[in-house]
Amino acid sequence: MSKRIAILTILVLTLASGAWAGMVFTSTTTSEGGKGAQQASSKVKGWANGDQAKVEFLESGNPMMAAGNYLVTKDGGKEVFLVNPKEKTYAKWDMEGMMQMAGGAMKMMNMKFSDPVVERLGEEPDGLVAGLPTVHYKFRTTYTMSMSFMGMKTNSKSVQEEDVWSAPKLVEMALGIWLRKAPPKLGDENLDKLVKAEMDKIQGFPLKRVTVHTTTNEKGKTEVTKMTMEVTSLEMAAVPESTFAIPAGYKETSLFGGTGEEGKDGENPFAKLMGGKK
Q1: Whether the predicted pLDDT of 142 surpasses 50
Q2: N or C: which end of the chain has fewer CB within 10 A?
């Protein structure tokens, strides 16, 4: 009897071990509207275990996020890498660097934001998303944007309305590399700070997000874009540590071209994405 108890104890400890705990999810994102009534979609599969996460792109129209590429973190998202199995390379997912490049473009066009207002319009328990109970949040962000470039000046007003269904029971920090509470930064320090302050009040992580952005120019013409992200499946599953490891032999590169920190050789996928020099 004691032998059976010992075996059962070992089995329970093994199953409870963080090395084999975790979850697996799939998520889809669709966008529509904008110039030419464009429509795009993407699909990912993710694995998470505490501070570790991996998000693989299954379908995407973004060359940087081509099918098979994936994001991975082992420290709750403080440091994230983009891995390209086809090229056997990996690069630091440098969001600050990307924002600096975007900020440079904004300065060239004298882009300025004014009259920012961020409101939390609602917060109440709602139904299930991917099998988990959620809290439904409603936000509205408004601002005015002016731009001056090569003698041309424009002025427009933007209203962004967001519905977020978040699961308070989800606490794995690494989920934030994909299931982000706050939307991508706009590049204005004051406005981004206001948005973050409100979005940080969301408990858990979003399982569904619907964002409708309406822009009205000085002539009264409006343009509406809609983006929907939804986790379509989520389950607890055994996720081995090897899931989050960058394979041995992969070469470190840079998102901005080159190898590692040098940035001298090789293709620049980010610049290619932005229509710049390869």
Answers
A1: yes
A2: N
Measure CA 102 to chain center.
17
Describe the strand order of the beta sheet including 222-236 as a list of residue ranges.
Answer: 112-129, 132-149, 152-167, 205-217, 222-236, 23-33, 38-49, 52-59, 70-73, 80-84, 89-92, 251-253
Helix (H, G, I), strand (E, B) or coil at 270: helix
Residue with tokens 């989050």: 244
pLDDT 10s digits, 237-263: 999 999 999 999 999 998 876 555 444
Length of the chain: 278
Measured at the CA of 181, the angle between CA 176 and CA 184, to 5 degrees, comes to 95
Model-level pTM?
A: 0.79
How far is 23 from 273, CA to CA, in rounded Å? Answer: 32
- Cα gap 240→227, rounded to integer Å: 33
Helix, strand counts (H, E) of the chain:
4, 12
Judge contact between 207 and 234, C-beta under 8 A: yes
Instruction: Name residue 42's amino acid.
Output: S
